[in-house]
Amino acid sequence: MRIACLGGGPAGLYFAISMKRRDPSHEIVVVERNRPDDTFGWGVVLSDETLDNLARNDAASAERIREHFAYWDDIVVIHQGVKTVSTGHGFCGIGRRRLLILLQQRARELGVELRFETPIESDDIETYRREFDLVIAADGINSKTRERYREHFKPDIDTRACKFVWLGTHQTFNDAFTFIFERTEHGWVWAHAYQFDADTATFIVECSEATWCKFGFGEMTQQESIAVCERIFARHLDGHSLMSNARHIRGSAWINFPRVLCERWSYKNVVLMGDAAATAHFSIGSGTKLALESAIALADYLHSEPSMEDAFARYEEERRLEVLRLQSAARNSTEWFEQVERYLHLDPVQFNYSLLTRSQRISHENLRLRDPEWLASAECWFQEQAGNPGSNRAPMFAPFELRGLKLLNRVVVSPMAQYKAVDGCPTDWHFVHYAERAKGGAGLVYIEMTCVSPEGRITPGCTGFYAPEHEAAWKRLCDFVHAETPAKLCAQIGHSGPKGSTQLGWEEMDAPLPDGNWPVMAASEVPWSLRNQVPKAMDRDDMDRVREQFVAAARMADRADFDMLEIHAAHGYLLSSFISPLTNRRDDEYGGSLDNRMRYPLEVFHAVREAWPDDKPISMRISANDWVGEEGVTPAEAVEIARRLKAAGVDICDVSAGQTSTRAQPVYGRMFQTPFSDRIRNETGMATIAVGNIYDVDHVNSILMAGRADLVCLARPHLADPYWTLHAAVRLGDREVTWPKPYLAGRDQLYRLAERNEGLI
């Protein structure tokens, strides 16, 4: 094949090397607009895994690269004047200029033609496409090739919020990847610094656009900008200056990072590679890794697949998955830095943990493998903050208090509808279901949303708090749980609103009953779907009556001896229908502005709070994202909702999301709703409960230790395993959990099996 690689960065050079290694008869030319020793970055970071991949692909160049690596194990975080060091992270860096020179040398050895100082204009690209069998568009983040065939590649470019400038320094930071956070007269400014050769380090300075504007960086020359950065970080630079190698750029050289993802990576005989195809934010250091590994993959497929078209298809299919994984981690990391001022109030211990786990690629137990000593000290800190000094148990086993409620640990059994009630009355099914989970070790057990009236039920199988027999059945459960377990019980009360009179959960969810439907009501005449009833828009009499039904239900829950109460104001049910602009179309004092939309839910809360004992806490569950963009509740508005709840006296916010509209387009994934809890907790100071696809011990401990929530709800794991918390303790080697006395023999066997790595769980 005759191959043109447009762009002489790592992607283009390494693809040329990889192809020549597989078949020396390929005629390959690399075209680069800059000189051989020009480079406008400083150091690049690679992992041991990537180095191993390079060694398998081309041992000669891998060995030369390895000889020039700077290695470091530590991450240092400097925050509030405190220097926190954690180890075991295993990074290696090399100067970008050095890497390019080594790859150029190897490419020449293999017979690749290198053409430097050769500009590539838009019209030239079509000429290359006609004259060569294959064109690799490795022309960088501002790819002209991608732009030339934009309608085919369909790039999605997301310009991120923060401003950054890429600098270098001869302060090497003692072989540690170092993050420095400095508060200035214009706001917070932070640096990402890492060594890449014997006497040089990359030094990336970053800040919010607001801070950047206040400094006036946009109007400065590069030297003026550098001088300001040197002043900000003077006590960390140890007398060393900062340096730029972007003299070709006019102005101060600050930019916003563009996240690039293309719908397609190939067009005819042109293939995108490296930053031209996809970018990953520098805060996770994976851009060069993506480029090199993509080069290897495409070279493989071009020699293993029956046609070039098949090779392109496989390249795109398999590499896209890896790119999306890294971009997901990069997005989490990017957003953490974009919102870092949300976390800067945290204690240095918790701030360090939050930073280390920001991408969700590093978990609690992964940190224990990397640096068991530091993590143990962090766990001790967490326990001490929880009022349990001297303990080094995992965060999930820290106590928690709200008003007079004292929980043994932070694990919560989520409210999960059972659809087994008879005329609103819980049955033996409910008794066994909830009693088993209370015996299973969780600190708090929710009952399902229990309705305040017959017409407030979601389905005919939903439980209620409106008849004497309901109270008796719930009292039986509470008495058993309090007598036999250390768990506490929370009663979640609600009204179905427009989603009422529907089928059981295992039938057709949210669909009307085939017959026997009862009338429904809501904030406005907005049906859940075209198939569902049009609800009556509540008038003042309806609002007064339902408010008093909530009060009566709360009093019944108290008489039954529940320890905590939650008012359900999420998921499109009645109170949620007032909060969301998707379902609240009122033009009176209960519609329009957020204050108006919150008016009735807060009326209900205040009435319930007055009726509920002062020493027992009340939570409210909200949907923190309608998943329809600006038309509905957004995460930003959810913060304002939580502020109003906190000001009203709500003790804790149960942060869920969605289920408010059939138009919703949720973005699923593990812990996918935790960011909403994180934002509310750290922007309002309100205690929160995290929910949503949380299923692993690591998830629970990571969420708590990073300060993303105060309690963690698990739903499906508790359906599959009522003893999830006790079994989690066995996996962690924690022997302080309380097992039911009749089960002690089973406990002992589990611990013995776990010690021999023969666990049954």
From TrEMBL:
Designated name of the protein: NADH:flavin oxidoreductase
List each coiled-coil range. Answer: none
The record's section on InterPro entries has:
Aldolase_TIM, FAD-bd, FAD/NAD-bd_sf, OxRdtase_FMN_N, YqjM-like
Q: What are the residue boundaries of the NADH:flavin oxidoreductase/NADH oxidase N-terminal domain, all occurrences included?
A: 396-729
| SUPFAM superfamilies from the UniProt entry | FAD/NAD(P)-binding domain, FMN-linked oxidoreductases
Query: Boundaries of each FAD-binding domain copy?
Result: 5-321
What domain of life is recorded for the organism?
Bacteria
Please list which residues make up the signal peptide. Answer: none
